[in-house]
Amino acid sequence: MRTSVKVGAPPVLSGITGIEGLFSMALDLPGDEVTVKRADLPEQPLTCRVTGGSKVDKIRIEHAVKKAIQLYLDQRGSSLGIRAEVRLHKTFPQHLGEGVPAIVAALCGVDFIYTDRWPVHRLLPIALETARAYCPEVAEASVYASLLGGVVMDSGIVQEDERFHKVFMPDGMHIVLTQIPLEVVTISENLSGRQEAKILSQKVASFILGGMTGDWALLKQALKNKTAFSTGIKKKIYEGCIEKGAIGLGTSMARDSHLVYILCDNSSIAEDVSHWLQSIFPPSKHQKIPLISRIHPSGHQIF
What we know:
Layout: E1 4-9, E2 32-38, E3 47-51, H1 55-76, E4 82-87, H2 100-113, H3 120-134, H4 139-148, E5 165-167, E6 174-179, H5 193-213, H6 216-223, H7 232-243, E7 248-251, E8 259-264, H8 267-280, E9 291-294, E10 300-302
Parallel strand pairs: 3-4
Antiparallel strand pairs: 1-2, 2-4, 5-10, 6-8, 6-9, 7-8
C-alpha cells in the first residue's frame, strides 16, 4: 500500500455539445492538483485542505472531496485514515469543469493508495453521485472526461470492457475561448430535428474517421458547420473569425456561460482571432482577454 499519491486533474470543457465536445480533455492548460496521503494512524479522521479559488469554492470542494473518498472507503469496508490536499487552478473562463475534475482526481488518488486498484467502472458511480450533488449542471460530462481521460462517445461504458480508439489531432492546433454575452443557441433553432440529427451524425463520422486516419481534410469538414452562427452578431463573429483564418467555432450549452470557442490550426491565427475579438468586444465582465490554449495532438480517447 502506498503512503502518498499526487494526481493531476486536467481542465475539462463542460457543457460543450456537438462534435467540438471531443476537445474536452485536450486543452494544454494547468489543471487542479490533488495529493492524497495515508494518515499515520488508521483511526485518524478523514481531512481535506483546499487552496486557491474563492472561499465558496474551497468549502464546496472540500465537502465533495471528503464525500467521494468516504463513499469509496465505505464500499471497500475500510477505516483507513486519509488526508487530501487540493490545489485549485482557476483559469478564465470559469466553465472548464467547475471543480469536478478535482473531485474525480481525489477519488482516483485514494484508489491509487491501494495496490489492488478498482477498475474504472467501479469508480464511476461514486464519482457521478458526488459530482451530481456538487454541480449537477456539468457533472456527467466532466466526470466522464476526467475519469476516463478522454471523451465517451456513447451513453456509458461497457462493464469489464475498457477498449478504446485514439483520435489524433494535427500538431499545432489551438483553441480560443472567450465569454461574450450571446443567447445560447442550438442548431435546432434553424433546422428540423431530422435535419439536425443528420448534420450531427455526419460531423461525428467525419471527425472520428479523420482523426483515426490522420485525414486533416475530413477533420476540417466536420468543424465547418455554421448554422448556430447564422444571424445578427453571431454571424458577424463567425464571419470575422473565419476571415482571420479560423477553422470553425461553436458555443457552449452550459447555462449562462456565454462561452464561444474558436478552433485554429496554428498559434498565429489564434492570436489574430483573439486580437480581433478584443477589438469588437471591449473587456467587460463577460469579455475578458480571450484564453488561447494548444490542443494536445493525442488528447482524445473514444470508448
